[in-house]
Amino acid sequence: DGLVVSEKVKSNNIDVKIPESELEAEEKGAEEEHPRESDSNILDVSSDYPRDRHISIQRHLADLEKLADLREDERKPCPLCPEEKFKACYSHKLHRHLQNLHWKVSVEFEGYRMCICHLPCRPVKPNLVGDQTLSKMGAHYHCIVCSATIVRRTDMIGHINRHVNKGETESRFSTVRAPKSSYKVVKESATDVQVLPNHSTPQKTDSYFNPKMKLNRQLIFCALAVLAGERKPIECLDAFGATGIMGLQWAKHLRSSVKVTINDCNENSVTMIKENCHLNKMKVKLNIREEDNDETVGNGEENSDTIEVTKMDANVVMHLRSFDFIHLDPFGSSVNYLDSAFRNVRNLGIVSLTSTDISSLYAKAQHVALRHYGCNIVRTEYYKELAARAVIAAVTRAAARCNKGIEVLLAVALEHFVLVVVRVLRGPTPADDSAKKVRYLLHCQWCEERVFQREGNMVEENPYQQLPCDCYGSMPGKTAVLLGPLWSGALFNTGFLRRMLMEAVQYGLDEAQPLLKTLVCEAECTIPKHLSTHSPGDENKQEECGVYIRTPNTSAESYLVHGKRKSEEVLRGAVKRQRAEHSAEHPPFYYNIHRHSIKGMNMPKLNKFLNYLSEAGYRVSRTHFDPMGVRTNAPLAQFKTVLMKYSTPTYVGAQAEGPVHLPAEIQVEEEVPTAAAIKVEEAELAEDEESGVATAVFTQSYPTHCAAD
């Protein structure tokens, strides 16, 4: 092999008049690429880097001139141009030509310059006859790493940057593994991981690591910690490991409570995951076909620090094995992996998925959302919750195909991702109940009022009657659109969120605690001042899916054994409790206070406005989906009425211009009843209609309108 390398090095010094020899040398080097990678002693043949470079790759401009000096004539040709393009000339003219045409437009990389080449090095596609011809004097660059030929300079710069991001900074005739010095060690939650340069750029590096997803990782860790408190040990899977940061955090903090499996289909990522395991003093358990000195067999403390690393497609690993906890975080949409995730997940297990295709979910690419999620959406004021419900609807359909139902534990939609955490309920009955909660949504495009379509298959004569607003009668044309199918059930489980908050406090996850407090208030639809992280008495015993789960300060007799399959009596009891607590679910969707503000009026502070709605008898809370959003069960008309009542004019002269607001405020106080009063009047009307005195009651309740009639 050493003789072959020396011949290759000599081949670079052949006279530039014969470019065919260069092509033969390139083909010869490509054939010898694999044996060179397999031989570890090749690296000692030559210390010059790169060893087998094209003549257009030089360190200095003088090196290009030396190539032209090989000819002893007074007129010297350009070594990078054919004679048809640039004829032989004197030295001073050749120097100016090399400097202006080749050197100034070169691409620099690690001390080398990849100059533009005009030699016929780029083979074109075969013509109709089948002859292999060479292109006519096409300008191009030769890559210093992979010997590829690229036409444009900007494309060449991007090509080199991709090599750098992947750690391929050596010649293709040596190993493509990046040196240890090019790695960067990142620490998060007491876990160290090695990453490559530009690790935060997806699809351009094998070790994708996004620091902005730290909050997402903390929420998933809290959900896993809650599940680990229910039954031990649990088998959990990080289907898309990348650097392995998430699985390492699970194993490092939860120890013997979990058996972690980190999977990735990329060989370089799997190698980096193993190195990161050793960096965090974790043992690696390989596949059965692989042999490693670090493989451990046994129980106890030996398995507590062991992580299983697999290299296969995520769908394959979820088809082959069963898990209690599965997390899916692919690049983009995760709908391609839902069927495999629900196929073998255990009963009462948890499936969490992170979707980063926010351009389609947030209605910027509506045709993509229809293609991936089978959902029709438009841009609304509540577009983030719309995205979460679209993802849950896809999850529900995938689970129902496997005869499994779901209970949504958590749904978060932030700037960069949509996170959904669901508990799996095995059986056709939970599957049917979950499938019934996937419904269509009627959305008014004028006032943005919205309501879920009624259950049933019968076609209604006028679907606009379901909307509380009267825009259809007062506005010309069609005013509403049909969105969906969407998840119409609850997005949060209060008991699960409270225990997640306890785990976040226990492990010191500071970034997740404020969000979890907001989610607890949003799930209960209460103002934040009513939140209590330490529930006294009976609230320590939480109930989810008919299974009692012990939380701190609870006696051992107050809960059932974790991980047991539910009996039929418990299932029937759970269904009754869910029906009884259905009215206590948080109201769907929210209103943006800025969207419905009155022009020329100063609206009240958001916290004060929440108190005003609460005093009017409505359930109200803030939402994490929108910092200026208000989740309430008040109709939009009542929402606007209360907002107008407590708004003040921007300036004194505003009352003299346009509509007068002061009489409207007085009228609001007289005509708008509270939520409790509305319910009492509706009940009285229903009773009186049965007795035949509805007209008298109507006259007594609304004397002004009757007098007007």
UniProtKB/TrEMBL annotation:
Instruction: Kindly state which keywords UniProt assigns to this record, in alphabetical order.
Output: Isopeptide bond, Metal-binding, Methyltransferase, Nucleus, Phosphoprotein, RNA-binding, S-adenosyl-L-methionine, Transferase, tRNA processing, tRNA-binding, Ubl conjugation, Zinc, Zinc-finger
Q: Which reaction does it catalyse?
A: guanosine(27) in tRNA(Tyr) + 2 S-adenosyl-L-methionine = N(2)-dimethylguanosine(27) in tRNA(Tyr) + 2 S-adenosyl-L-homocysteine + 2 H(+)
Q: Which InterPro entries match?
A: SAM-dependent_MTases_sf, Trm1, tRNA_met_Trm1_C, Znf_C2H2_type
Residues annotated as domain C2H2-type: 143-163
Tree of life domain: Eukaryota
Q: Where is this region: Disordered?
A: 16-47
Tell me what this protein is called.
tRNA (guanine(27)-N(2))-dimethyltransferase
